Amino acid sequence: MISKAKYTLRLYGNKHFNDELSCLGWQLAKLLEGLKTVSEDYKWYVFDLYGTSEGGFNQYFLTNSNGLCEFFSIDTLIKSSKKIIQYETGVFVMFPKQAQLVMSFDEYPRTEEEEGMQIPKSIIEIRAFDFSYFEVYCNDEKFIKLILDYIKK
């Protein structure tokens, strides 16, 4: 069930991170660090993950018994993100800790450009596209402002 996001932010390596390359692990980590002050009531899900790392993605992005990659702490997600060299695809979803994510494997989000919000109740959805840029989808301007303010530092 896709819904149009009120805010969409496209982030490129050269424009937003002072780097020729985009979708780097440290860039996602920096983007996430901008959300640390508001992250306590949220957990993160990761879908459709592919890219390059020194080890296998599976050692940094473990799945639970339901087949979901779930992080209950943004700090743990940031730490895992820093282990990745570059993302080709990936959907990173900020979701209320108290809410239940109920969906079948066929409904899991995919990395699609300008898709909007793919998961009901999600707060933010961040996607990495073809090693080229990140897109951030959100319905609340305060989260977009936090990210932009932080990455400008």
* First and last CA, distance: 36 Å
Largest sheet, in brief, is: 6 strands, antiparallel
- Count of helix runs: 5
Residue share in helix: 10-25%
**Please, what is the average pLDDT?**
88
Q: Kindly report the spatial arrangement of strands forming the biggest sheet.
A: 1-6-5-4-2-3
Strand proportion, as a percent range, falls in 25-35%
Q: List the secondary-structure elements in sequence, H or E.
A: EHHEHEHEEEH
**What's the alpha carbon Rg, rounded to whole Å?**
14 Å
Total strands: the figure is 6
Low-confidence stretches: none
Shape: globular
Structural category = alpha+beta
Describe the fold and architecture:
The protein is of the alpha+beta class. The chain is 24% helix and 29% strand. The protein is built from 5 helices and 6 strands.
